[in-house]
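Progress report, Aim 2. The chain analyzed during this reporting quarter is listed below.
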Amino acid sequence: MKTKVLMIAVLMGFTTLLMAQPKENDQKQSFHGSNHEVRMNDERGPQKLNLTDAQKEAFKQSRLALQKQMQPLRNELGEAEAHQKTLTTAEKPDMAAINKNIEKIGALKMEMAKLQVKHRLELRAQLTDEQRLKFDLHQGKMNRDRGPEGMKHGREMKGEHSRN
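Predicted structure tokens for the chain:
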């Protein structure tokens, strides 16, 4: 009897713990750089750049072009990560296939990072010296706020399924 009561109490405790945990966002993002830049450039962020209308329009067009380039990469990354889960949970894992898939995931993430840096530099080139200083200060702050997994708020790096 005491055992049953104790087991029920432990189960209720675990249930309470699980319900108190924050739910993980199904659409994870690994590289939020462009989203942070967008918020900053729309003057909703802490660093107001006082963009001209022409700059705002150029930023909008550049962001759209980046998103068009990133979408197929995000999709392919999601597929590669799902395939990795399949490979690693197989009864007899094939290490050669696992390693090859890891390299594919890494290559996709590198390509995405390169596109984002290129985008950021294109945006930066359109700014005045004062705007550039604020832009760079904000970027440095964002990098310091990221956790050990490379994401704010402790999210794991999962491409831009998002996120973006």
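Residues 53-88 form the longest helix (36 residues). Helices lie at 2-20, 33-41, 53-88, 95-125, 129-145. These observations will guide the mutagenesis work planned for the next reporting period.
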